[in-house]
Amino acid sequence: MLTTAESSPQGPAAELSPNHISNQTACVLCGVFFLFVCFFLTAFFASKVEHESKHCNGKGIQRPGSSAFDRVYTANQNCGHAYPTFLAVLWCAGLLCSQAPAAFAGLMYLFVRQKYFVGYLGERTQSTPGYLFGKRIILFLFLMSVAGILNYYLIYFFGSDFEMHIKTITSAISPLLLIP
């Protein structure tokens, strides 16, 4: 019977290196942080819907006649529908490509969704910049995920590892997300 030290040619230290543990911990903490922020933003948006509903007519949630309520409700629904996609591409980009640019893009996306929601409360044309900016960030995270998957297959089939080049490129491109 082989133990873990005998099964690995480099011993158990290679399997549980400090870099590997810290990367896993950082990824988990980053994911938990984003889940909490998404939860609080969703709660904020829901409270705005409730406030606007009570402000319009006092009692129930369904107020189809009020344009202010319709705007708040629609913005809340739009933000709620976008979060599963955001979380999926954020996790994939962070795990498959690079954690720092993915975390930066994730924070930018959360700020953009807040801008979108607040812009939607005004006139619908005010929400357009936030919407377009959010689409660009989701595309960036998606492309990071695709680059990580392609790198995996390049390693698997050809033995070529482009991880450092991909991390350099994504780290250089991520500040460009700030350009409106």
TrEMBL record:
UniProt-listed Pfam families: MAPEG
One MF term in the entry's GO annotations: glutathione transferase activity
Major site of localization recorded for this protein: endoplasmic reticulum
GO cellular component, one term: nuclear membrane
Keyword Cell membrane on entry: no
InterPro entries (UniProt xref): 5_LipOase_AP, MAPEG, MAPEG-like_dom_sf, Membr-assoc_MAPEG
The entry's keywords: Endoplasmic reticulum, Leukotriene biosynthesis, Membrane, Nucleus, Transmembrane, Transmembrane helix
Bilayer disposition of the protein: Multi-pass membrane protein
Function of the molecule: Required for leukotriene biosynthesis by ALOX5 (5-lipoxygenase). Anchors ALOX5 to the membrane. Binds arachidonic acid, and could play an essential role in the transfer of arachidonic acid to ALOX5. Binds to MK-886, a compound that blocks the biosynthesis of leukotrienes.
Complexes and interactors: Homotrimer. Interacts with LTC4S and ALOX5.
Record-given protein name: Arachidonate 5-lipoxygenase-activating protein
Organism field: Cairina moschata (Muscovy duck)
